[in-house]
Amino acid sequence: QVQLVESGGGLVQAGGSLRLSCAPSVRTSSTYHIGWFRRAPGKEREFVSAISRGGGTTDYADSVKGRFVISRDNAKNTVFLQMNSLQPEDTAVYYCAASIRLSLSSTAAGYGYWGQGTQVTVST
Question: Which residue of 35, 65, 70, 111 is most buried, as measured by CB atoms within 10 A?
Fold first, then answer.
C-alpha cells in the first residue's frame, strides 16, 4: 500500500510559478512510476505529467508542455512538478498518483494509488 501526500499548492497570479511536491510513504524509485493529474471545477480529471521509476522518461500533456517540468529526487523519495507561466485555466486540484505498470501511463486507470490533492488557484 502506497500513500501519497501532495504539497505546494496555493494562490498565484497569472504568469507566476509554483512547485508541487509528492511524497510517497514508501520508497518508489525502483518500483513506481509517478504521475500528476488535475481536476478543474466542473471538468473531468485530466493527465498533466508523469515520470518513470528511474526518472529517465517523462511525459506531458500538450496543454502544459514547455511550461511544466516533472522531476524526481530518488534520494529524497520525492517527485516535483515545477509549474511556470501559470494561467487561470491551470486552476485545479492537483493529484499525484503511483503506478506499478510496466510502461509509463497517461491515463488515470494506469495508477492504483492516489493522494488527496492540493489546490492550485491562478488569478488574473
Answer: 35
Q: How far apart are CA 35 and CA 97, in angstroms?
A: 5
Q: Which three cell numbers stand for residue 10?
A: 496555493
Of 10, 25, 27, 6, the C-alpha closest to 81 is: 6
55-59: long-range contacts (C-beta < 8 A, 24 or more apart)?
55/29, 57/104, 59/104, 59/106
**Which residues make beta-bridge pairs with 50?**
35, 59
Amino acid of residue 83: M
Q: Which three cell numbers stand for residue 73?
A: 529526487
Helix, strand, coil share (%) of the chain residues, nearest 5: 5, 50, 50
CA dihedral 26, 31, 36, 39 (to 10 degrees): -80
In 3D space, the residue among 78, 62, 71 whose CA is nearest the CA of residue 26 turns out to be 78
Give pLDDT, residue 14.
98
